[in-house]
C-alpha cells in the first residue's frame, strides 16, 4: 500500500498540517498519478472549516489535480505511464442511474464520490489533491494536452468546468449578453470562457480595483455591483447571469437585470442562505433562478479541449504547501489573482526531509 504524504485538517478550527495515510494500490481499472500541482478552490475552505456541516475528518482537500501517470491497471486503455492526467471533483459514481447514463455523474442519483470528503450520501472518507499522489478509476481521469504551463491548467478541473457547464447548458454564445457575478477563481474562468464562446460579457464585482483585470480577462463591460447607478444601466438587458459569489447576498438587484425569460444560475455555495428573492422580479418577466453543480466527466474533457483550443488557462499565484493556511485567509479577503495553485514539489521536499 503506497504511503501518501499530505496536508489535512483534523477538525473545523484546525490549520492544515502534515498528515500521512495509505492510498490503495492501483487495481485493474485504476490510474496512479504523481501529483504535480493542485488548485485551491473556495470549496476546500468551506469543507476544511465544516461550513457545509458535512465534513469528515481528517480532511485532505484538493480537487483541481494535475500530474503524471506513474502506473496503470491491466484494463486501462486511455493512459500509459508518463502521460499527463487530471482529476477534478469526482472519483466515482454509481454508473447505472439515469444521470450517470447521460454522462451527468455529478447528479448521480445514488450520490457521486467526491475526490475528497467521501460519497455525498455518506460512506468512507476520500482524500484529495493536497497530497503527493492519487489513485483514481480511469473513467474519472481526464486527458491533459501537452503544455508549458501545467500549473495554470489545474484550476480548469473545478473552476473551469463549474463555469463552462452552465454557460454551455444555457447556450451562451454570439448575440447573447451574459453577466458574471464575482471575480474570483470561478468568476475569472467564467469571464474567459464566456468571451471565448462569443458572448458579450458584463462583469459584476464588489471590488472597483478589479476593473482593469476584468477587461483584460475578456469582459466587455465592468459594473461595480454596489453602485446602484451603474447597476441601473443594465436593467432588463442580460440573457443569462452566472453568479459565483461565495457569500450570502441580495439576489434581487441581479434578477432585475435579466431580460424576459432570462436565467440567473447560482454556482456559489455560501455557508448560509441568501435572503429570499422577491417573486415579483421572477413572475413579471418569466425569469428563472437556477443552480448548477460542476459538470460531467465527458463534459470536463470537452471543456479541457475547448480551453486548449482557445489558449485558456487560469491566472494563478503559485504557492508552497507551507503557505496554504495564509492563502485561505487571503482568499477570504478576495486577495488572490485569481487562483492559488500549490506546487506539490514543496510537499514532496518536506516529506523527504
Ligand atoms: P473565490 O475565489 O473566493 O471568489 C469568490 C468571489 O465572490 C470573490 O472574489 C468576490 O468577487 C465575490 N464576493 C463578493 N462578496 C463576497 C463575500 N462577502 N465573500 C466572499 N466573496 C465575495 O471563490 P471560488 O473558488 O471562485 O468559489 C466561489 C463559490 O463557488 C464558493 O462558494 C465555492 O464553494 C463555490 N463552488 C461551487 C461549485 C459548484 O459546482 N456549484 C464548484 C466550485 C466552487 P468580487 O471581488 O469580484 O466581488
Ligand atoms: Zn472546487
Automatic annotation (TrEMBL):
Keyword Repeat: no
UniProt cofactor(s): Zn(2+)
InterPro entries: ADH-like_C (IPR013149), ADH-like_N (IPR013154), ADH_Zn_CS (IPR002328), CAD-like (IPR047109), D-isomer_DH_CS1 (IPR029752), ER (IPR020843), GroES-like_sf (IPR011032), NAD(P)-bd_dom_sf (IPR036291)
Highest taxon above the source species: Bacteria
Pfam families: ADH_N (PF08240), ADH_zinc_N (PF00107)
GO molecular-function terms, A-Z: alcohol dehydrogenase (NADP+) activity; zinc ion binding
Protein keywords: Metal-binding, Oxidoreductase, Zinc
Residues annotated as domain Enoyl reductase (ER): 11-342
SMART domains per the UniProt record, alphabetical: PKS_ER
Family label: Belongs to the zinc-containing alcohol dehydrogenase family.
UniProt name for this protein: NAD(P)-dependent alcohol dehydrogenase
Organism field: Pseudomonas eucalypticola
Amino acid at each position: 500500500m503506497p504511503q501518501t504524504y499530505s496536508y489535512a485538517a483534523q477538525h473545523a478550527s484546525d490549520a492544515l498540517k502534515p498528515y500521512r495515510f495509505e492510498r490503495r494500490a492501483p487495481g485493474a481499472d485504476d490510474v496512479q498519478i504523481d501529483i504535480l500541482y493542485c488548485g485551491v478552490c473556495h470549496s476546500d475552505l468551506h469543507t476544511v472549516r465544516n461550513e457545509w456541516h458535512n465534513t469528515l475528518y481528517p480532511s485532505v482537500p484538493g480537487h483541481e489535480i494535475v500530474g503524471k501517470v506513474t502506473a496503470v491497471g491491466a484494463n486501462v486503455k486511455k493512459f500509459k505511464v508518463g502521460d499527463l492526467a487530471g482529476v477534478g471533483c469526482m472519483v466515482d459514481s454509481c454508473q447505472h442511474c439515469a444521470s450517470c447514463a447521460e454522462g451527468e455523474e455529478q447528479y448521480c442519483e445514488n450520490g457521486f464520490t467526491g475526490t475528497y470528503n467521501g460519497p455525498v450520501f455518506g460512506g468512507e472518507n476520500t482524500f484529495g489533491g493536497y497530497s503527493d499522489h492519487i489513485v483514481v478509476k480511469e473513467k474519472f481521469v481526464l486527458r491533459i494536452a501537452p503544455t508549458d504551463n501545467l500549473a495554470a491548467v489545474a484550476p480548469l478541473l473545478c473552476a473551469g468546468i463549474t463555469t463552462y457547464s452552465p454557460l454551455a447548458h444555457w447556450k451562451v454564445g454570439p448575440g447573447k449578453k451574459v453577466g458574471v457575478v464575482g471575480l474570483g477563481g470561478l468568476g475569472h474562468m467564467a469571464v474567459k470562457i464566456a468571451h471565448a464562446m462569443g458572448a458579450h460579457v458584463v462583469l459584476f464585482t464588489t471590488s472597483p480595483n478589479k476593473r482593469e483585470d476584468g477587461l483584460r480577462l475578456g469582459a466587455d463591460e465592468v459594473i461595480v455591483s454596489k453602485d446602484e447607478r451603474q447597476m441601473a444601466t443594465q436593467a432588463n438587458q442580460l440573457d443569462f447571469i452566472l453568479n459565483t459569489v461565495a457569500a450570502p447576498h441580495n439576489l434581487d438587484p441581479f434578477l432585475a437585470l435579466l431580460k424576459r425569460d432570462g436565467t440567473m444560475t447560482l454556482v456559489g455555495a455560501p455557508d448560509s442562505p441568501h435572503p429570499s428573492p422577491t417573486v415579483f422580479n421572477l413572475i413579471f418577466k418569466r425569469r428563472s433562478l437556477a443552480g448548477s453543480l460542476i459538470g460531467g466527466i465527458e463534459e470536463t474533457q470537452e471543456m479541457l479541449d475547448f480551453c486548449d483550443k482557445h489558449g485558456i488557462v487560469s491566472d494563478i499565484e503559485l504557492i508552497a504547501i507551507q503557505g496554504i493556511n495564509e492563502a485561505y485567509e487571503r482568499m477570504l479577503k478576495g486577495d488572490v489573482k485569481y487562483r492559488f495553485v500549490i506546487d506539490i514539489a514543496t510537499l514532496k521536499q518536506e516529506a523527504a526531509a
